[in-house]
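Structure in, sequence out. Go:
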């Protein structure tokens, strides 16, 4: 009775979990549990990790690792945690709440991963590896049913195409319910699930030393965004407008605000509609050339998104925004992993990335537009932004086995990135006629960063490993597009950096029946990007993102797995964080 060996790819090559000097949690058998329905449900398995819906975009994730977090869905700000699927980095958090279906393993890497995984991994990386086609005919079908008429179907079929050389797999999922949150204004349930996906994979193995895996995935998610609660009081702005705006009755309006919003009820004047359509193409090729393995990963993804945001969350038609966003990304990575000699092994690679998004936001709130801004009834106010990003990088990470027990790790990555940003001020339209013409602005800037890693590990015996490391990561600079003035959206912010020192132990006890891993760490978070409302050079006031803060974070992480019997396993984790601002400018 022993715990099985777990193989991870945390350093872009296959290694045993207990021998890799990285703070990583690997989940494989745990993914068979029906309680893990999507990415949100893995947070309890890894210390100092929280995963939630952001509430501001379809399937958008808000992930925090070691106190480094994000939840913004505006594409002008980049995520702080990298979610990677089959080697392809997802450049936006919309669609990151992945379904737990046909997944081989999920690895949660804690701390900055700037050397091997690059920009926007200051918190860490969630590395998702899906199952390959097996080459044998067979499949699986799962169905789940629950409250609010929940129906969740998932299935896949593996099949051979050419024996031993080409295998295929097709899959499909469909999930829906009638919504668990009652809207007392429109008398309908909201927060409804309406999602489906399908795709296929082809695995070619023409020779013993070469394989190519191609995947196509299609996602159509029309699920509502969870509604917000209404805590307006009778002296709120909306109530004070009663009697001033024609048709706004004081008693009815203020009474409609007090609808008993709680954990099961909201009182907005409509659903918070949202949708995302994603097409994803991935090609992963591996060629064993003897001294090492060459890996080439090509990925392309395209998102078409919509969301309706009821910012006032009240029964009145006060302030509503409709967002339309188009996003696409392309990435190409080529690396070479080699056991160069008995005392030295390494992985080195190059990386190319480009992405583009366009966003249009439309203000349609009657009270906000007509009364507060004095615009004619029927006015729609538009803001638009567009950005192109191009990034290139080269990286190297090597292990020098000084003795049989002592190993030194040295890694470095150089990244160069350019962003071209365009946007315009408010454009007013009535019945298709432009009544207020926008003012256009554009800006471009280039950044370069070098992110190192240094480490030492000591294998005390077959069951105990001690390690220590210093690692750095950075999050991209850019322009904050959700603004109304040229001076605001053409003001750039620089990259933020995270430097982490950590000491750890990995150990197996009681003849391999008990596994205990522990880490302590200290993080310096510099040039932290913060939203700030400031007076601008054109005399207006706007929200800009600036490098306003420095933060210190320290913590402790414990992970325990014990095989109590053949069928009973104990798994526990503990995380502690202590964080404070050093400076806030």
């Amino acid at each position: 009775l022993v715990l099985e060996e777990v193989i991870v790819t945390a350093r872009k090559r296959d290694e045993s979990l207990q021998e890799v000097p990285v703070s990583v949690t690997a989940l494989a058998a745990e993914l068979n549990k029906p309680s893990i329905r999507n990415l949100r449900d893995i947070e309890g398995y890894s210390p100092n990790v929280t995963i939630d819906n952001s509430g501001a975009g379809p399937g958008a994730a808000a992930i925090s690792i070691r106190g480094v977090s994000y939840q913004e869905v505006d594409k002008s700000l980049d995520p702080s945690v990298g979610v990677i699927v089959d080697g392809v980095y997802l450049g936006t958090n919309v669609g990151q709440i992945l379904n737990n279906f046909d997944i081989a393993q999920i690895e949660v890497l804690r701390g900055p991963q700037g050397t091997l995984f690059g920009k926007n991994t200051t918190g860490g990386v969630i590395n998702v590896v899906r199952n390959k086609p097996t080459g044998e005919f067979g499949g699986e079908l799962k169905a789940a049913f629950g409250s609010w008429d929940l129906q969740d179907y998932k299935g896949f079929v593996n099949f051979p195409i050419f024996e031993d050389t080409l295998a295929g797999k097709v899959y499909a999922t469909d999930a829906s319910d009638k919504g668990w949150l009652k809207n007392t204004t429109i008398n309908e349930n909201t927060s409804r699930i309406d999602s489906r996906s399908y795709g296929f994979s082809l695995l070619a193995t023409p020779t013993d030393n070469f394989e190519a895996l191609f995947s196509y995935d299609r996602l159509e998610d029309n699920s509502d965004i969870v509604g917000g609660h209404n805590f307006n009081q009778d002296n709120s702005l909306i109530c004070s407008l009663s009697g001033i705006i024609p048709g706004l009755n004081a008693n009815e309006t203020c009474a409609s605000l007090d609808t008993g919003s709680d954990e099961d009820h909201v009182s907005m004047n409509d659903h918070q509609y949202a949708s995302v359509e994603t097409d994803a193409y991935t090609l992963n090729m591996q060629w064993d050339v003897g001294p090492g393995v060459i890996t080439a990963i090509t990925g392309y993804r395209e998102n078409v998104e919509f969301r309706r945001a009821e910012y006032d969350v009240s029964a009145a038609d006060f302030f509503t925004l409709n967002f339309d966003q188009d996003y696409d990304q392309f990435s190409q990575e080529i690396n070479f992993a080699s056991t160069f000699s008995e005392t030295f092994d390494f992985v080195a690679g190059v990386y190319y990335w480009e992405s583009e998004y366009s966003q249009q936001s439309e203000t349609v709130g009657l009270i906000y537009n007509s009364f507060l801004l004095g615009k004619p009834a029927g006015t729609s106010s538009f803001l638009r932004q567009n950005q192109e990003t191009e990034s290139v990088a080269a990286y190297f990470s090597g292990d020098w086995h000084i003795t049989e027990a002592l190993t030194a790790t040295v890694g470095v990555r150089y990244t160069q990135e350019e962003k071209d940003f365009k946007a315009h001020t408010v454009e007013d339209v009535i019945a298709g006629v432009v009544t207020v013409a926008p003012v256009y602005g554009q800006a471009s800037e280039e950044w370069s960063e070098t992110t190192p890693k240094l480490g030492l590990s000591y294998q005390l015996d077959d069951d105990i490993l001690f390690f220590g490391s210093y690692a750095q990561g950075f999050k991209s600079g850019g322009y904050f597009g959700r603004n109304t003035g040229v001076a605001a959206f053409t003001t750039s912010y620089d990259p933020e950096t995270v430097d982490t020192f950590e000491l750890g132990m990995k150990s197996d006890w009681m003849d391999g029946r008990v596994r205990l891993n522990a880490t302590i760490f200290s993080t310096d978070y510099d040039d932290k990007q913060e939203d700030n409302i400031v007076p601008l050079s054109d005399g207006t006031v706007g929200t800009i993102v600036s490098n306003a803060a420095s933060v210190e974070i320290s913590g402790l992480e414990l992970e325990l797995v014990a095989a109590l019997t053949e069928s009973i396993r104990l798994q526990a984790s503990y995380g502690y964080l202590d964080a404070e601002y050093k400076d806030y400018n």
